[in-house]
Amino acid sequence: MKKLLIFIAMLFVCVGTVQAKTVDHFYGMIDSDIKSEDKVAGSTVLAGANVQMDGSADGVSFLLGNQVVFNGDSEYAVFAGNSLEVDGQVNKDAFIAGNLIDIKKGAKLNRDVVIAGADVKISGTISRNISVYASSVSFDGVKIEGNVKVYATSLKVDSDTQIGGNLSYPSDAEASIEKGTVKGEIIKTKEIQNEEESLANLIMNKIWSFMSVILIFAVLSLAASKMFINIQNEYEKFDFNKGMETFTKGLLFLIFVPIVILILLLMTIGIPLALILLALYFIIVYLSTVFTGYLLGFKLWQKFFNKDINMLVVGIFGYAILFILNLIPGISFIVSMLSTIIGIGIIYDVVIKKMGAKE
Questions:
Q1: Does residue 323 share a domain with residue 229?
Q2: pTM score, whole prediction
């Protein structure tokens, strides 16, 4: 994963570590190594192989990388990567996803927290509720004022931990809970099913998929940036009717193209064309998320920040939101289907229709 992230970062031309400054708008940096001490009066995106944030953000901090270190201060936090260390303060909600996650003793997470990872170690202070989805979880001297929900195969709670609310965990998990650490109830939930793919592997696969989409977007934005400029022009004004039109085009394409391919396969002379169409069909379906993520990032950027468009940052912003939505149980399937259908509609508008118009 580290090599992949370094390769992605090398595709971007940005400045890495810079002197601390005050920024009064949305701020983004993408490089192989980033250390930010800036004070941002808005949200920020930092992405690269090694990312460290020591400054502050009066908004949402999106930190994405192989190794992510957060020592700063932010209103909201979204951290994703391979190895994550959190030793700063998040004043409101935080979402953290990765492989190795370490919430240090100096960390202060002042509202609800959701963590998804493989090996998770939690210290510091959490002022409300926390939900953890992982393979193994250890609470090491953490003070939690609310409830704790754990979905893991291994759980350890040491004697220095204080949990003000209830603690729930799967009944078949290997649990070591010191007496007197939980003021509320200790609740055992349904067993974790023994499946070939563990929750940790599922999360890592999603992270890998997310980084792959960013890599594809980076290549496309450099090789065919006009496609994304066409998205901006085509969807400058985007209302309900335009959204339904795009959705309908994508749905019709998704349904009727396979029917056409099947008909061609039934005719000997049509088999070569059918195979070509089948390959193009799968390519379009695969790339659909790239276009949906960019449109989402573009419209949100346009609505909330109203600044000059940075194509790379806008794309990563949109994909990060889709990634988070895909991790939420119950809606991930809906999000994936909508992303695919809308993305196909976008491809039709900005690629297929444009090519037909030129002819």
A1: yes
A2: 0.60
